[in-house]
Design goal:
- The structure is a single chain.
- With 252 residues, this protein is α/β, with parallel strands linked by helices.
- The protein has ten helices and eight strands.
- 44% of the residues lie in helices and 22% in strands.
- It starts with a helix and ends in a 10-residue tail after the last strand.
- The structure holds S-adenosylmethionine (SAM).
Length: 252
């Protein structure tokens, strides 16, 4: 476990994505810099060391509550926010994203990059909707199965690590069944995957040199190798959703 933190603390982000991808998702929801009179109130769930929070605060002037279970990621987030001059906009909230702090009237935006699966995709949809104001937006990025079937090594790896892996269509249907308006969705570009595994592999080299080989480091290397050998069999889909405004269409 310690090796896992050692590696992820040294990476710019802990999941697949990029600032450009975050801004792309926001723009599909009509959330673009410089167009709001009041500040955007946002919740970043499973924030890690805070890439989405930093993007929201520095590009949108948003006020963000960043929820993260692990204090060491929050410490990194606080430091990065101070360096970027946006620490007054970001509250680092240590705790469980299953029960984030509520905001009177609801949040304008909830963003969960690579984290919903940790609660279970449908459970996350169910829990987070009441936290949004009517018309508020939810951005979730989620690993999806693209190849049918997966090659045997990928089936074995993801079967062990994410047995609930589903296709983008299944997730779309789940968003709608949970009572969200599905505004748009798109696949994260390959360049975000490349950047993630490039960063991971360079930290892994350093980790082995300083700490020696371990089962955790081997598992991370195996994941990077699998990505390189089987890119395209799985993807990351970004769902851009809204809590409906009208009571009659709010659904589940
Ligand atoms: C795959 S990482 C994504 C981090 C970040 N959103 C990003 O894209 O770089 C998932 C994060 O969720 C955090 N996490 C896991 N379970 C959590 C929980 N129940 N409540 C809050 N955070 C949690 C992990 O510590 C980790 O930082």
């Amino acid at each position: 476990m310690e090796d896992l933190f050692w590696v992820f603390e040294r990476m710019p982000r802990q999941g697949i994505g990029s600032r450009a991808t975050t801004l792309q998702a926001l723009s599909r929801l009509g959330i673009v810099p410089g167009t709001r009179e009041a500040p955007l109130h946002a919740l970043d769930l499973g924030a890690g060391s805070g890439e989405a929070s930093l993007t929201l605060a520095s590009r949108m002037g948003a006020e963000v509550v960043a929820v993260e279970l692990h204090e060491r990621f929050l410490a990194a987030l606080r430091e990065r926010a101070a360096q970027a001059g946006v620490d007054h906009l970001i509250e680092a909230w240590p705790g469980d994203m299953a029960t984030p702090p509520e905001r009177p009237g609801g949040y304008d935006l909830i963003i969960a990059e690579g984290s919903a699966y940790l609660l279970g995709f449908e459970e996350a949809l169910r829990r987070w909707k009441p936290l949004l104001r009517p018309g508020g937006a939810l951005v979730i990025s989620e690993l999806v199965r693209v190849a049918d079937p997966l090659s045997p090594p990928m089936a074995a790896f993801w079967g062990a690590h994410y047995p609930d892996l589903a296709t983008a269509d299944v997730r779309r249907a789940q968003c709608e069944a949970a009572g969200y308006e599905r505004v748009d969705d798109f696949q994260i570009p390959e360049s975000d995957w490349e950047a993630f595994y490039e960063a991971m592999e360079s930290v892994l080299v350093e980790a082995r040199r300083r700490r020696g080989e371990s089962a955790v480091l081997q598992a991370l290397q195996r994941e990077a190798d699998l990505y390189r050998a089987h890119a395209g069999e799985v993807g990351y889909q970004v769902y851009c959703l809204r809590r409906p405004v009208s009571v009659s269409s709010q659904g589940a």
